[in-house]
Amino acid sequence: MAHGSRLVDLVHERIEDFLVERSSILRSISPDLEPLDAFSRRFLSGGKRFRALFCYWGWEAVGARDFDPFAPEGGRDRFPVVSAAAALELFHAAALVHDDLIDNSDTRRGSPSAHRLFQSLHRDEGWAGSDADFGRAASILLGDLLLGWSDELLDEGLAALTDQRAARTARTEFMRMRTEVTAGQYLDILEERAWITKPDSEQRLRAERVIVYKAAKYSVESPLVIGAAIAGATQPQLDALRAFGLPLGIAYQLRDDLLGVYGDPQVTGKPSGDDLREGKRTMLIAIARERLAPGQRRLLDELLGDRTLEPEQITMLQRTISECGAVDEIELLIGANVTRASEALADAPISREARAELGSLAKAVTRRAS
């Protein structure tokens, strides 16, 4: 993944250059806006850049073979895809800021979440009113700012394309992704509250719907399609990348759901069993409810979403979910979706190198520990 690792560096540089330009606008308005600049940089400095990598390999897959990360700055061939990859990282950061607020999460990647950072700022400065209210309001605005900036960054890249059909296709996919993620996020918070009124027989299907629209499409499928569109992909190429990207995205999120319950806090940067305290109605929980005896199911329903759960209770729930076979079934689902993705990749009309690199990425996103 030599080109991919270089792409990560280029994306980081593109984000930094973009933030320098935007921070000058913030400073020209007021020095009081410095926290927006500082916190945006903080949330864009880390992460695995999976979405950027999928975007690049979507581009590479359909024949953009002249990509050279070390080409002179004057070369514009790389600019649209690097900008799109960077825009996806800004979009992801915006989604995380809002997601942490919705979930009332204290941490992100082992550090305070955005609303907690703003809450601490309020408290440290001795300002009037509620520090929690300020933290919530300010983090909404930070997420909105990052979301708007992702659009600007994408448009700067697409403006450099001579193929306007390719630019329109990429822009259309980005807008579709934005709508789907918002819809998926709503469905996620809906499930945490409305599950009690829905038939048990529907809960697996409803959990899968959240996986598809909140995570799978925007984590893998859309980045692939955006990158490929920028390279001028044909419809069969786009269809093949979708056929690969959607099941891989589902597998990616199923792994994430397991990590949300069983992940090592030292690796994930989140407390152990965090999804249990947040009351996430994931596929793991839907399957566990199908397998548990009525008494165990009632106990799971009673404890899930209790933010005061003690470590002993978390351990008990983890053991209960595992012993009923739900974890094993999730692993089987991950394997089945990876197989679907691999079969689609094998027949895809794309470059040989991209096929190999996408296969390696598929392993990386579904076998990860964080």
From TrEMBL:
InterPro entries: Isoprenoid_synthase_dom_sf (IPR008949), Polyprenyl_synt (IPR000092), Polyprenyl_synt_CS (IPR033749). One of its GO terms (molecular function) is (2E,6E)-farnesyl diphosphate synthase activity. SUPFAM superfamilies: Terpenoid synthases. The keyword Membrane does not apply. Its cofactor is Mg(2+). PANTHER family: GERANYLGERANYL PYROPHOSPHATE SYNTHASE (PTHR12001), SHORT CHAIN ISOPRENYL DIPHOSPHATE SYNTHASE (PTHR12001:SF85). Belongs to the FPP/GGPP synthase family. This is Geranylgeranyl diphosphate synthase type I. The lineage of its organism: Bacteria, Bacillati, Actinomycetota, Actinomycetes, Micrococcales.
